[in-house]
Structure formats: C-alpha cells, structure tokens
Design goal:
heterodimer, A: mainly beta, seven-stranded mixed β-sheet, four-stranded antiparallel β-sheet, B: mainly beta, five-stranded antiparallel β-sheet
C-alpha cells in the first residue's frame, strides 16, 4: 500500500513569493493533518481535516496561509507571501477515522531566502 | 495547552539499553505517543499508551504514569540503526490533536 505522498520534496524561494505544497493521503484515510516542523523541534499542527471539512485550523496563520481539501482526498497548503521565518519542513499526515496512529509523509523542506 | 519536556540528546553504546523520559502537563489527557524520526525523514509511529503501565513491543517498550504526567521509552539491545530523534507526543481530550515535544536525539556508538 502506498504511503502518504507529498510534493515537492524541496523548495527554495525568495521572500514575498507564493508557494504551494501538495499532499495525497493514504487511500481511505478520512483525517488529514498539516504540520510544520522547525529545525530541532517537534511537529506543530497547522490544520486538521475530517474529509473536506477543516475541523481545527486554530494554529494556521490565516493572514498568509491557506489550505484546501476540496474533494476530501488530496490537499494543498499555500503560503502567500512567504517570509524568512516560514523556512521549515511541512509534513502531511493521515489516519483513518478514530484511529490512534498518524501516518506521516516525507515532508516538503521549504527554504525562504 | 500542553507542556512536554524531554532531554535533548542521549548517547549509548551498541547493545546497551537507553531510557528516554518525557514529562507533560496537560489540561486534558487522551493518550501518549512515541514516534521515531531519522534525520531528513518522516516520523514513524512506535507506541501508544492511554492507561498506566508498560507496553512492550519487541526491543521497544513504553511506560505511562498519568498521575505523575510521566512516560518513558525504553530501547533495548541498541543497534546503529536506532540512531534517530524520538518524539514524545500527547493527545488532547475531545479531539485528535497531537502536541509534540522537541524530540530526543539518540546516538548509538559502536
């Protein structure tokens, strides 16, 4: 079974530019998470989806970040405009409804210059 | 909110045992998780505790004391491939939100 797929794996942009990350969760997983992981830190939740509904976006900086999961399957996370402090690894994870374990994708490493 | 504390680094010898402690403070507890993360890779699930006691899974065991807000991950018969960061995460009551500690980097030496 394929795992969580993310693209791109690496992205380098200049500040003030837009950037988008894509995630395809494991087939059949209703719940999808976006995390941000800074160097030397644990992942921090940005947003959680149940199917196409964002049920927890309290940690998403809404002035510049947006996310969507239109058909309840794959998801896109966007930053516009990017700032230097946005440099981090952006992880996507998924899980079946009510399941304890979250399955993480390989992440997108963003560098903002 | 959550306050999760774990040591930054630990070093051990191949074949030895290492215990990684995690203390937490939470307004509502609904489970504690341990994840392993190799450098540049995704976190992978190791264990889940929601009741007090020890959960054993091969060379890895995890312990929880809810009254003390304390958990540990025990790694036995260390192998070089166990060199990684180990993340303690606490789930909040009422939702499935995981709050992660900063991780403990374990280095296994020959």
């Amino acid at each position: 079974e394929a795992g969580v797929v993310q693209s791109p794996r690496y992205k380098i942009i200049e500040k003030k530019q837009p950037v988008a990350f894509w995630c395809n969760p494991i087939s059949g997983h209703n719940t999808l998470y976006w995390y941000r992981q800074n160097l030397g830190q644990g992942p921090e939740l940005l947003i959680r989806y149940e199917n196409e509904e964002a049920v927890d976006d309290s940690q998403l900086p809404k002035d510049r970040f947006s996310a969507e999961r239109l058909k309840g399957v794959d998801s896109t996370l966007k930053i516009q405009p990017a700032e230097l402090g946005d440099s981090a690894v952006y992880l996507c994870a998924s899980s079946p409804r009510g399941y304890n374990e979250q399955f993480f994708g390989p992440g997108t490493r963003l560098t903002v210059l | 909110g959550q306050n999760i504390d774990q040591p930054t680094e630990m070093t051990a010898t191949e074949g030895a045992i290492v215990q990684i402690n995690c203390t937490y403070q939470t307004s509502g507890f609904n489970g504690l998780f341990w994840y392993q993360q190799h450098a540049g890779e995704a976190p992978t699930f190791l264990s889940y505790n929601v009741l007090d006691g020890l959960e054993e899974k091969g060379r890895f065991s995890s312990f929880l004391s809810r009254s003390k807000g304390y958990s540990y991950l025990l790694l036995k018969e260390l192998q070089m491939k166990d060199s990684a960061s180990y993340l303690c995460a606490v789930r909040s009551r009422g939702d499935y939100k995981l709050s992660f500690g900063a991780g403990t980097t374990v280095t296994v030496r020959a």
